[in-house]
Amino acid sequence: MSIQASHSFYPLPGGIHPSENKAQSLQGPIRQAELPARLIIPLTQPGFAQAHVQVQPGDKVYKGQLLASGNPVTGLNAHASTSGTVVEITEHAVPNMSGLPELCAVIASDGQDEWQKLPPLDPAETDVDTLITRIHDCGISGLGGAGFPSHTKLRGALSKVHTLVINAAECEPFITADHALMREHADEIIKGIWLLLQITGAGKCLIGIEDNKPDARDAMLKAIEDAFDDRLSLVEVPTKYPSGAEKQLIWLLTGTEVPSGKITIQSGIMCQNVGTARAIARAVLHGEALVSRITTFTGAALEHPCNMEVLIGTPVAELLAQCDLDESRLSRVISGGPLMGFHLPHADLPIVKITNCIIATTESELPTPAPQQACIRCGFCTDVCPVNLLPQQLFWFSRSKELEKAEQHNIMDCIECGACAYVCPSHIPLVQYYRATKAELREAKEKELKAEYSKKRFDFHQQRMEEQKRQDEQRRAERAALAKKRKQEAAAGGEQAGGEQAGGEQKEAKDAIKAALERVNAKKAARAAKASQQEQNDTEPGS
Amino acid sequence: MSMLNSSPHGHQGHSTGQVMQQVMLACVPGLTALTWFFGWGTVINIIWLALLALGIEALILHLRGRPIAFYLRDYSALVTAVLLGLALPPTAPWWLGLIGITFAIGIAKHLYGGMGYNPFNPAMVGYVVLLISFPLQMTRWVLPVGATDALPGFGESLVMFFGAEPFAGIDAYTGATALDSFRQQRGGMLVSEFWSVTDVMGRWSGLGWEWVNTGFLLGGLYLLYKKIIGWRIPVGMLAAIAILSAVFYDGGSSASGGSPLMHLFGGATMLGAFFIATDPVTASTTPKGRLIYGAMIGIIVYVIRIWGNYADGVAFAVLLGNFSAPLIDAYTQPRTYGHRK
Prior knowledge:
The complex is a heterodimer. Chain A is α/β, with parallel strands linked by helices. Chain A is built from 13 helices and 17 strands. The termini of chain A are far apart. In chain B, α1 (16-26) packs antiparallel against α12 and α16 packs antiparallel against α17 (314-331).
């Protein structure tokens, strides 16, 4: 009984068929890159928590020794990729989209390549938590592209996942790293998958592979057969870009649409790349930290394109030289594929965990983009969009900064696969417009949130003030009532006495005035003694 | 924005200029049929309009301070010239084309912002301006080979182009088109009766016209095959015309609107369906919207032909479709991945 590949899949809308350019790098087996004299190993990852550096310049390190530890929740550990001495810890340019430098450890190799491994674990007798901790300890991140820390993803997926999807599609042109890995290490991939199933508790695993790599498919089928595990099945899907995008592959294999804005685990599905599966197997079964990966070196400027197992931190320039780079023909160096990869400003950059492919290309192979022309709304982009957006509308909204409309047309669902720009006859760099608009939308959202927060704070403040005022008034009213009550009580106790006293005081004052007036009048009377009788009579009413 | 850093780094290699060239290439079978049945007039129209279009486009680009050579290479002005040239009668004098193309490129295209920004199909704006302003010149079609003994030769076509009366007199060559005759001269006859008394009708539709339409159909199929145009707009438009004409065919009675074949292969049906309604700039852009847009144009064409004042209605129908395209788009957004059905 031999296991067959399944061909039942849910067709992907849109998509493109660019020339594959995969054969060039698949002519030979995976090469072992030469041990570099100097390695530049990133200690942090952009977007993730700061790492704690564990070594100092001058320290002797072994291959696999921890250089920096990320935090246990979302951090990623960094390890020395070979034995040697830490020369310095400094900011260095690394291949990333932003172009910002990162904290790196520069290591001078001692040429011994001496391992320091963790003890191997027996997966059958190890609990899930220990397994995940091991994956964290070994610094494993997704090797497919995004580089998300694997332990974080796994912890988030515990007992929430029914299906494991293994991404073996490798749909981008030029890249063959996973293809080569499957040809040569299918057994280790299957072991990694077994561990992933063990950890997540998923009941089944679908391995999605494009039909342009029959030798890799057969190697995988053989390994599945050897594993005697009926939870595994391999699905061969038609070659079409971007069938290897996470949510697209999940649709192809399971017919499940992950709702907009949600992660796949919320739909009960976890996606892992074949390279990640193998790294997990090496970490658990051999105690090896992630210090190397398989990277495709290809492009028309290389005499000998190939796949190489390279140490993380090896300078790209050295590796290109090992493939016999023809500098005179080189036009650009691209990290990743031609559709989603990014242009490297120079080759003095290290290989990092997500570097799946380096393309040293020539002007004739990947020409400089032609100048942008006017959009004629031909709709070629609509036909190829794998998520059913209207790219040309999004372009107009992006240009005119109509953020609200762009959002209504679901720009946030764009996966930036680049299929639209690939077919655009007017050579509009559509993805670039979308990235800018998405960033603006995110910023606007943040501002909105902030504004909402301050409004809430203000409202709360107002409310508190009003409450206080109300309480004050109440207190005042209470006090007034109390005073009134006391008064009444007092009044009830000695009303008479109080009244007399008050009346007496008034009388006294009146009497004093009267007396004074009388005195004055008496003087006047004395002065006017000689005056008429009338005058005396006049003073009398004043008395 | 730096171009160097943005993915994707590869491109299919097609350019807007190539798209336009393919469209012009696909016009050749239809143009050949027009020339075969109606003489050299259309070819002369196209050459004249092409020269004018390039000149006007260059002039306006210059006035707008745009790079002239860069924009001329998108060939859009030439396509407008070719489409208007195909639509004008072969007897059109030079000034008719001049006015039409000036309106098309100067006003309908550049006053609205140029390539990609025009809400209305430039060639059809030019055509409708002429049709309304110069009804006599615009409806004076050459009689097809078979209905007349003498087709105007190249020389006589040139004479008419320069606005003069040809030697044999212009009326020797011209007459009402098939669709026009069907409307105006049938006078209560059965369809079959009309067919037998007139010499402008061919096998299924107007004499000559059925081949002209076949030519444009072939060109359209080529564009479909080359994926220059999508199937939705032509299918929507042709289906609407076919269904309406079948409903109102009435067995060929005296009240019949004419057979579906007469309408599909008559007048500007195929030219409109594959070359004019499909102009992407002015059409609906959503998949569902394009079907609706095409169907709407088909319905208006039929309504104008049967109950309207004009023999054919493609130009008006397309312009009315252009009006509705943004509205249609707004209501026919496709469902994005991960959004509720």
